[in-house]
What we know:
Elements: H1 2-6, H2 9-18, H3 23-50, H4 54-64, H5 67-78, H6 82-112, E1 115-116, H7 119-142, H8 150-175, H9 180-183, H10 190-228, H11 232-244, H12 246-257, H13 261-290, H14 300-318, E2 321-322, H15 324-342, H16 346-356, H17 362-369
Antiparallel strand pairs: 1-2
Helix pairs in contact: 2-3, 3-4, 3-10, 3-11, 3-12, 5-6, 5-10, 5-13, 6-11, 6-12, 6-13, 6-14, 6-15, 7-13, 7-14, 8-13, 12-13, 14-15
Amino acid sequence: MYQRLLLILIPLSFVLHAIDADPRIVFVVSLSAIVPLVEVMGVATERLSKHLGSVVGGLLNSTLSNAPELIIGIVALRNGLGRIVKASLTGSIMVNLLVGLGCALVIGTLKHGVHSFDRRQFRSSGLMLVMCGFCFIVPAVFRIGTPQGTRDLSLELSAILLVIYVGNVLITLLGSRHYAEDATPIVDDRKESYSASRSLAVLGLSGAMLAFISEFATEALIPATRVMGFSDTFSGIVLLGGVGGIGEVLTAVRFARQGKQELVLAATVGSTIQMVLFVAPLLVFTGLFLGEQMNLSFSMFEVVSIVLTIIIAREVINAGKATWMEGFILLATYLILAIGFYHLPDAVIAQDRTAAEGSALPALKVDILNQPDG
């Protein structure tokens, strides 16, 4: 019901942008209009997946679930907001692992009791999750010694991540070939065929609408947040990141209500892995194509937040069982990090990001090189 009410905000955002309304109003309305679009894209993707079999459908679902983050990131890069893109990616990871998994545990355990996870099945995903954190730590550490090599390092890491993503897709497809006959549905009914076509049409239309409304939101972001007193980083992490990840949160909660614990992990952990392996490197190459500054060297505060998020989420899942209390802890962790970013001034982030972009830390580098031996 609430999704239908929020759909009214979509044409309203176009009207407000056309009449050049107050940036605060345009930003809030456009940001709110993204929520129902993300939900519509999620539902269309799930319905389309049913026509492609469990294997291909699962891959499509996990990949397209991050389409909002990718679209928002590309639009922000076109507007020269690379720093906002990094903040948005950080926020989406936090939302997936802390808010999505946290809400799913709270709602799922209150309805079905203690959540149980198959730790053996999660072992591979857990390792991939650690590697995701590793990919943010390496550029942040190595930029101290090679500040001018940040861009090249990010491009090389992005290429490796995309190769891993393609390899993961191929292994999933080839490893499941013996299930192909069972996984691929036979569709003879015209109604079913039309449903697949309709899902594609809805997916394409909602994606196009999301691109336009993301453009409105990013254009109004800076002037609106200046007036509201929010820093650019807080706006990217909490506002854009939260809206971009709302689809995974809603999906995880829906699976939790149905008692499908493994699908909860796919919607949260799986989506996070896809974001790091596919969305982040793709945005790096998009930035290169557009001539905008985009790399994998995030600020110290963002890297610490991502690593802490991965550690606490992995600990909860590795325990094998979880109650509403673990979910509450995940939500509290997100709130703590969000409050921290709220009080963090843009000047501090800007100074750290200047170092991340390879134009700072010269004094530190000279001091290190000039240290006497022994």
